[in-house]
Amino acid sequence: MTSEIASYVLRVTDLEAAIKFWRDVFGLELLNRSEGEDGAEATLKAAIGGGGVTLVKPKGDDRPVEMGHSIFRQYMHTSDSARLYRHAVRLGYDPTHEPFDVIPSRFNVVKSYTRDPDGYLFDLCEFQGPPGKRMLHNQVDPTDLSDGGAIIATYVGYTAIYVTEMAPAVDFWTRLGAQIVDQMEVSRGYTQITQLRAGPEGVVVQLMARTGTPEAPAAPLDEKAARHASVMPQSGKVEMGTGFQGFRVATDDCSGLYNAVVAGGFRSLKEPAKEGSMIVAKVADPDGYAVEIRQAS
């Protein structure tokens, strides 16, 4: 039984505008697009690898996207954070945070941030260092594919979501076939992180559990400090909001993967059933994140 976290799913208010953002800013390619009774959707992925994103526009749902407290940010691994940031801003997208060096860090990292038209946060993450040591866990090294700097190589990196408790969330994902690729603590020890991946490619899920709240600064933050604080991990109860819709996992055994998850006591949202050319099931983790298990029939 094999599996891969093929994509994560975002509800958008304007499908055309969302596709344009992913294509024009990050250079992702449109893998497929469909429209049915429930609405329209499109899945995109970078040609160089990484995970995929599925954008959905439900029919009749024109509500603004409310982030809730679920997806934290989407890491976009890139060969040049500063250039990618300037490119996004030049196209008219949000100048959320200008490029900066991450200190202290386990890595040599340059980051900057932007947002899409619906307000989803993107971490434009450039790992620096010598070849072979920039990237971990056999992920694609965008710098090796940047054509000597003539192009900005970018792909979908970690998808970071908040969880209430780390252990049951990890159990859920390992039952879906994912393996732990890294664990760490950040934010002065107030945030536990576990990264998991199923298969050689696909989405890397970054689970984030807050274990406390740092003391608030004694004095009000200036504009720059406030902008920086706004893109850092926040405390709070996990709330789905109306934007993030969960994940899609591709497998060669939908029933087997579904049964493994349900046997762990996790919630079934839909038993395996034929849907067109697919066999589809749906489960939820302890915080309510939905995962659709899909098998080509």
Structure notes:
- The chain has 297 residues and is α+β, with helices and mostly antiparallel strands.
- The protein has a single domain (3-296), classed as 2,3-Dihydroxybiphenyl 1,2-Dioxygenase, domain 1 (Roll), CATH 3.10.180.
- The protein has helices spanning 15-26, 81-90, 166-175, 223-229, 254-263, and strands spanning 3-11, 29-36, 39-46, 49-58, 71-78, 97-101, 108-115, 121-128, 154-162, 179-186, 191-197, 204-210, 244-251, 267-275, 278-284, 290-296.
- The strands form two sheets. An eight-stranded mixed β-sheet has the order 2-3-4-1-13-16-15-14, with helices on one face. The protein has an eight-stranded mixed β-sheet with strand order 6-7-8-5-9-12-11-10.
- The protein is globular, with a radius of gyration of 19 Å.
- The two termini are 15 Å apart.
- The model has no long low-confidence stretch (mean pLDDT 90).
SSE blueprint and pairings:
Elements: E1 3-11, H1 15-26, E2 29-36, E3 39-46, E4 49-58, E5 71-78, H2 81-90, E6 97-101, E7 108-115, E8 121-128, E9 154-162, H3 166-175, E10 179-186, E11 191-197, E12 204-210, H4 223-229, E13 244-251, H5 254-263, E14 267-275, E15 278-284, E16 290-296
Parallel strand pairs: 1-4, 5-8, 9-12, 13-16
Antiparallel strand pairs: 1-13, 2-3, 3-4, 5-9, 6-7, 7-8, 10-11, 11-12, 14-15, 15-16
The CATH superfamily title? 2,3-Dihydroxybiphenyl 1,2-Dioxygenase, domain 1
Alpha plus pi helix count: 5
What share of residues is helical?
A: 10-25%
Structural category = alpha+beta
Q: How is the quaternary structure best described?
A: single chain
Count of discrete structural domains: 1
CATH architecture: Roll
Helix-strand topology string: EHEEEEHEEEEHEEEHEHEEE
Distance between the termini: 15 Å
| Integer average pLDDT | 90
CATH class: Alpha Beta
CATH topology: 2,3-Dihydroxybiphenyl 1,2-Dioxygenase, domain 1
Strand order of the largest sheet: 2-3-4-1-13-16-15-14
Radius of gyration: 19 Å
Q: Any low-confidence stretches, pLDDT <50, length ≥5? A: none
Biggest sheet statistics: 8 strands, mixed
Beta-strand percentage range: 35-45%
